[in-house]
Design goal:
Layout (H helix, E strand, L loop, with lengths): L6 E5 H12 L7 E9 L4 E10 L13 H18 L4 E10 L7 H13 L4 E9 L10 E10 L7 E4 L1 E5 L4 H12 L1 H14 L7 H48 L1
Parallel strand pairs: 1-3, 1-8, 4-5
Antiparallel strand pairs: 2-3, 2-4, 5-6, 6-7
Helix pairs in contact: 1-4, 5-6
Bound molecules: zinc ion.
Length: 255
Amino acid sequence: MMAYLKKVCLSAEIYAVCLSHALSTEKEEVMGLLIGKVDEETHTSYITACRILARSDKQPDRVEISPEQLMEAVTYAEEVSKQLNDNLRVLGWYHSHPHITVSPSHVDLKTQAMYQNMDKHFVGIIFSVFSSSTSNRSKCNDIQVTCFQTNTRLNNQFSRLEICLEIIPTSSIDACSVALQSLATLPEILSKEEQEIRSNESTQFDELTKLHNNALQTLQFVNITDKVSRPLVDHLENEIRTLTQQIKLLKQERD
Ligand SMILES: [Zn+2]
């Protein structure tokens, strides 16, 4: 069977958002949904937005999209469509593989097959982060990305179909601002996950246990601020400086 999709073009800004999300946690897999549109003639899908999802279950190698999250992403895709004056829909999902290879697991292939049954253009992207291969002794952060669909030809025998992935320049300033808005939701989502964990906690705990858990949560919040929010603010401030400089130069050129 031929792949329904020949190629996926991922906008550079969205690539940066997904990668920042993947790098935000080293212990668990993170995931999100990809939004864009398909060129039916060339079998190419263009990913121009994404939705970062909160994890409902912080288990390693357990990534699940709840129906509520999917519905929320559909609504978000409609919002972005209005903002960009385009017709976008949820077209795929991404997740991270911290410390493991980029290849989709059997569960990944099964999940992908399920979504592909609903939409033949649905695609999966995996970011392998924090991996240190034996060939890489340089201590560099080795990042690998794969784009795949599931070959469902053989009954109950899923295999991976590799899809060509191209990172393309972001099409417009509006599309950049959509991507930045997604990135800005990251600290908020990570904090929500922490709050979620505490809300499921037993009310029977004694004072000392509660105090201990409170302290741990505070530590997590400090981590989020330190490792995610602050670098994000630094990055955005740098971006403002570069753009202001560029505007100045362009104005000089014009005059
Ligand atoms: Zn996986």
